[in-house]
């Protein structure tokens, strides 16, 4: 009788054992397919995080390598050319720079604005959305627009400052660096209002002038306006002291920084670079931990399932010693007998695998929600099925071979003698 027919007849005759193996394969394959779909969704989320979270780095004067002139460091400031050279490096999506001034600000009636400090802590800005305070999430623009490099006399203020002084987007303010010294007056239009997301009682926590100012006293003005405020004053401590660069792919931050440091026209002994990727690192670490957990679960499920299948097949083959001995005694080779066992198992898999593919499409979404994934983002693909079918088939063949070792190492007479 053809071994294929024998395999089919045996599977039908031993339907309880066939059903047991079928249910086991169906459950295992469904879980593994679901796990692969969740793992892919996890990877897609990680890719999305890299693009949406991004990261930044700060280039600033290194005052430790410069001298001092009274209270001011003589370290060179950043030039416009230097800022633009760095901004041109591949991978940098945007930039901002800082020209710090401490102006007094007045409304259109000439009245000084109500605020918490003697003066304002003003950041001259090219593109305020890329300023470290906004990139870090401490500040969030809630009205109007950010300052861009094509604006000349624009200013962004805090919501608190706007509420205290009855200000809104579109109003005009006048900034004066030192009124008592008749420094130039600069008229600025309010183009945006930001909210302080960080703890109101948590100041900048830096050992510089900014630490003495409440967040509500921070303002951002266009770079042209900031330069207009100090025109004719010329203090040694005034100039562009730092710049912020936004990198779209946070995973490439280190590579971008290395390329920036390779710009030979910049004396890097006078400047230092600080990476700002805490948000990305925290999120990616959590995603990595979840990805590791999913992979571990897939491996554990597969390993435990293989042990169970081997045990079931071993018990089945041992219960068939008489049949095996007779087949060997009538001249059927051991490889042919083993092949029959393989066919019996694969016949069950041929039915179980496609059904598992269909069931996993329903189960994967439910399981994915346990890992914080949206069900619609968990998709079991044909590629997942092909991978599981091929690897699963190989593992099943290996399981049959392992299960047959104890019986097939005996000779036909020994097998039949054990059955007497």
UniProtKB/TrEMBL annotation:
Transmembrane segments: 293-314, 326-353, 385-405
Cellular location(s): Cell membrane
Keyword Disulfide bond: no
Membrane topology of the entry: Multi-pass membrane protein
Coiled-coil parts of chain: none
Domain (ABC3 transporter permease C-terminal) ranges: 297-410
Sorted UniProt keywords: Cell membrane, Membrane, Transmembrane, Transmembrane helix
Pfam families in the cross-refs: FtsX, MacB_PCD
Cellular component annotations (GO), alphabetically ordered: plasma membrane
Domain MacB-like periplasmic core: 19-262
GO MF term set: transmembrane transporter activity
Protein's UniProt name: ABC transporter permease
């Amino acid at each position: 009788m053809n071994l294929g027919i024998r395999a089919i007849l045996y599977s039908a005759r031993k339907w309880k054992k066939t059903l047991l193996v079928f249910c086991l394969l169906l459950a295992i394959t469904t879980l593994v397919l679901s796990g692969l779909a969740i793992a892919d969704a996890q990877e897609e989320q990680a890719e999305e995080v890299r693009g949406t979270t991004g990261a930044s780095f700060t280039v600033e004067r290194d005052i430790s390598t410069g001298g001092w002139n009274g209270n001011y460091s003589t370290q060179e400031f950043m030039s416009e050319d230097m800022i633009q050279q760095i901004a041109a490096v591949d991978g940098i999506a945007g930039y901002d720079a800082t020209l710090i001034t401490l102006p007094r600000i007045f409304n259109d009636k000439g009245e000084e604005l109500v605020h918490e400090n003697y003066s304002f802590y003003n950041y001259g800005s090219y593109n305020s959305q890329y300023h470290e305070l906004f990139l870090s999430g401490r500040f969030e623009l809630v009205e109007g627009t950010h300052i861009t490099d094509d604006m000349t006399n624009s200013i962004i203020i805090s919501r608190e400052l706007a509420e205290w002084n009855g200000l809104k987007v579109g109003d005009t303010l006048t900034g004066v660096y030192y009124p008592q010294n008749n420094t130039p007056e600069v008229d600025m239009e309010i183009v945006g209002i930001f909210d302080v997301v960080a703890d109101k009682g948590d100041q900048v926590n830096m050992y510089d002038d900014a630490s003495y100012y409440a967040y509500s006293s921070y303002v951002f003005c266009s770079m042209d306006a900031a330069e207009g405020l100090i025109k004719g004053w010329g203090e040694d401590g005034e100039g562009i002291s730092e710049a912020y660069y936004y990198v779209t792919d946070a995973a490439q931050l280190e590579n971008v920084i290395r390329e920036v440091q390779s710009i030979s026209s910049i004396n890097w002994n006078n400047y230092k670079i600080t990476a700002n990727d805490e948000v990305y690192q925290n999120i990616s670490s959590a995603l990595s931990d979840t990805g590791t957990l999913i992979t571990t679960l897939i491996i554990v499920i597969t390993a435990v399932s293989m042990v169970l299948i081997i045990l079931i097949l071993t018990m089945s083959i041992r219960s068939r010693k008489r049949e095996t001995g007779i087949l060997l005694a009538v001249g059927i080779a051991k490889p042919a007998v083993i092949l029959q066992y393989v066919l019996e198992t694969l016949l069950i898999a041929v039915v179980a695998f496609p059904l598992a593919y269909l069931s996993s499409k329903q189960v994967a979404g439910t399981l994915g929600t346990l890992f914080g994934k949206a069900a619609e983002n968990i998709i079991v693909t044909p590629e997942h099925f092909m991978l599981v079918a091929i690897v699963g088939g190989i593992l099943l063949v290996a399981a049959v071979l392992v299960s047959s070792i104890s019986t097939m190492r005996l000779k036909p007479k020994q097998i039949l003698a054990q059955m007497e």
